[in-house]
Amino acid sequence: MLKARQAKTIANTGNRGKPFGLAHVAIIMDGNRRWADLKGLPRLLGHKEGVKTLKELVRYVGSNGLQYLTVYAFSSENWNRTAQEVSYLMELFAAVVAEELEELNDSGVRLRFFGQLSTMPGNLQESFRNATERTKHNEGLSLSVAINYGSRLEITEAIRSIGQDVAEGNLSLDKIDETVVSAHLYTKDIPDPDLIIRTGGEMRLSNYLLWQAAYAELYVTPVLWPDFSCGEFEKAMVNYAARDRRYGGD
Length: 250
Ligand code: FPP
Known about the structure:
Blueprint: H1 4-12, E1 24-28, H2 32-39, H3 45-63, E2 68-75, H4 83-106, E3 110-114, H5 122-134, E4 142-149, H6 151-167, H7 178-183, E5 195-198, E6 217-220, H8 230-241
Parallel strand pairs: 1-2, 1-5, 2-4, 3-4, 5-6
Helix pairs in contact: 2-3, 4-5
The structure holds farnesyl diphosphate.
């Protein structure tokens, strides 16, 4: 018999078809600039190469029936990079959405963007809204892009919003539980990740999905993101398959 807490956590991770034995993979795509440095290329070209990796991976996991893929494209801390790099990334995001939307839509991908989107450049907000609206009825891979995202800010906003519900008399204090908190996060419509992959070797979560990662398995590889091929993804799946997920139980 599953304990109530365990059953609830499993329910929260989704339970439809799982081609790789899991429903949701979240990725920290790190190492683009180091990849360019190693090749003797301008550093920012590493991001362009990173987009190619993402495109191939989306095609691969989408055609294999993965349900949810979430990628960390820009953290709220990334604004501290040089103005040149920030504007390069903003232009890259706009170009990728414009160039890829038709193919993603045709292959049944449902796109979502989450983070503090209201402070992003207006053209990007518009293109994210359009892509989200355009693909919202698709039933293939659900691809979420965390952009201008930071977990602490997400949780802070959730607390504020729950506080407002309480203050307005729409929620009583004793009704606040984990389900209520989850329902106030950007990720309210998607299950918690089963596996978080980080490329580039750093052993940290960097303010990514801190609440949602409570029971996620972690896989860190030294492979730099532009080199993270479908074969590398498969290695992560094999590694995950050998894990024993106990959700804090025996
Ligand atoms: C981290 O590598 C990567 C980023 C900050 C940007 C990732 C963005 C993409 C791959 C483009 C995705 C596009 C869309 C539309 C989803 P880094 O710069 O921190 O590399 P380093 O660790 O070598 O410095």
